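Example record used in the benchmark description.
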Amino acid sequence: QVQLVESGGGLVQPGGSLGLSCAASGFTFSSYAMSWYRQAPGKERELVAFITNDGGSTSFADSVKGRFTISRDNAKNTVYLQMNSLKPEDTAVYYCRSRVNSRIYWGQGTQVTVSS
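Model output (structure tokens):
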């Protein structure tokens, strides 16, 4: 079965950096695009970053462009989100997501808190 497990969240000061990882299993990882989403308290879940199956193309929400990067290692079945210049408004639970055979799968999420 498809499993996505995020890690790397935590508390960071404004202006700091944090890296998230999402380990995937149960499907042919290198065949599928991957995404990172986030959900802040009281807000809807929103797309943060997207990467194609081969890592050749990425896209980002306007709010994180220039600060976040997404990458993947298909040999390790892992997708990453590197977050720099973090702001308090980046505080949220971050989820990785895959769409495999038209079904959407989510990880359990990892909390990122940006606060001084």
